[in-house]
Amino acid sequence: KVFTFLFAGLMSLSSFSYMELSFGVGSIDFSGAVLDGNAGTAQISFRGHTDNNVVYGVGYSTAGTDIITGGAVYDTDLGVLSGTVGYGFGDLSEGAFVLAGSLTNTSVSVNGINGDDFIDTSGVLVELGYMRMADEGINWGVGVLVDIDDCDDNCESLIGSVDIPIGDSNWMFGFGVSFQEDITSYSVGPSLKF
Question: How far is Cα 39 from Cα 67, in angstroms, rounded to an integer?
Fold first, then answer.
């Protein structure tokens, strides 16, 4: 509720300067003691910034894979809903440092059975990075994402993305990557600028 109140308050004080809708597919690779393998992913997100350098975004991603443990195979589906708000310390259309916070809600299904009662479904993340979001040219970003919600292991991720314009249209094609201990993810897909 606090996040929604702050987000609505910040948005009402600003006019929207840049918006984009992105979607795509990818892969997440696990190489840990418990999970070892990969899963296909799909995601959709809406993000942008205001004239007052407020960064915002909302997104949903899903992944599905078979987990093999002790000879048993478990069909596992994972979904993550996230909301982000932050501030850019400069002109984001030229490139600026950004400090942002995100709230996430995760759902897990194993062999068709809801597993949300067995995991921590909420998350709080802080991101420090540098990004460019503009109507023209290549948009890109790099950063460090830190899980600050009861995280004891593998709490930091290095993230990066680049969106390349497709001709003179409002369409771009993007690539994204995330590196975390024992987990690497990749994504590709188009985005539409507003």
Answer: 10
